[in-house]
Amino acid sequence: MNLDLRDFRVFPVDLTIESEADAQEYELQGITVRDLMTVKMNIHKVKEEYYCQGMVRLPVEEECSRCLNLFDAELSGDFSFIVKTGSPEVDAATVAEDEMIYINTHEPVIELTDTIRQSLVLAIPMKPLCSEDCRGLCPNCGANLNEETCECRLEDTDERWDGLKDLLE
Ligand SMILES: [Zn+2]
Ligand SMILES: [Zn+2]
Prior knowledge:
- By secondary structure, the chain is mainly β.
- It has two domains: 2-133, no CATH class; 135-169, no CATH class.
- The chain is built from two helices and nine strands; from the N terminus they run E-E-E-E-E-E-E-E-E-H-H.
- Strand 5 (49-63) and strand 6 form a beta hairpin.
- It is elongated and about 70 Å long.
- The structure holds zinc ion (2 copies).
- One zinc ion binds next to loops.
């Protein structure tokens, strides 16, 4: 996804881009995209520098790490960078300084895909949950305990005591 800053005559610019997003392009493993990606950006220009702040939202489907059901979720993240133009010899060099990303370029055209990818990948939860109190699957019979109770549950030992059992053995 390219952004050509020469397209804008007047700054600051507020802009919203909606586009199709491909889970593979953005390296979103185990994620299914279910709607358009929305990117919002705010761009200020000071002399030859463009200060860009943005956020991305992507409606997705994740798999619950406890009950393995698919559920609707949204990945969202922020990003910001500064684009410096004016040195004709640089093509596009990216420098990170104090958590600020500088992009030096002679043509103010920015490739946004990498930036967006980083924000989205960071937004993926380590353990997605369909709900905070998802009861998961019975480790014994595999029943989804959100939807049913099973017989074996009663016989299970309380796993909080397992650590103690190990100590005693
Ligand atoms: Zn669940
Ligand atoms: Zn069971």
